[in-house]
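Good morning C.,

I know you're traveling, so I'll keep this short. The sequence:
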Amino acid sequence: MPETDDVLQQYLSDHADYEEGDDDPRGYGKRVPYIGFYWRNIYLDESDREVSIGDCGGGFIGFMQSNKWGYPERQADDALVAEIREVVSRAITEGPHVLEDLWGVLERWWTKNA
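The tokens, ready to paste straight into the viewer:
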């Protein structure tokens, strides 16, 4: 049975950042690619979906729920949201390291939709 939006949201919130001492391959302190000082909820439910993806430069593509900086931004389409849900659901089963896959998912989508 697919996880509810609340379950996915809570998991993302709990694991968006690396803990001190964790291996951080990109050096941003973020396991989930998001633009901003802290994680902001994204809504993956079809009824109230609001998933904004932005490019803050330097190859950093991430979730951007508050664009205070005027960065280029796009709204996620159905295919991207489905892929995000799949990655987060898999992470719930296999572990938070799977959330690293979101970096590639968002980068590929951004490039494809340029």
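Safe travels,
E.
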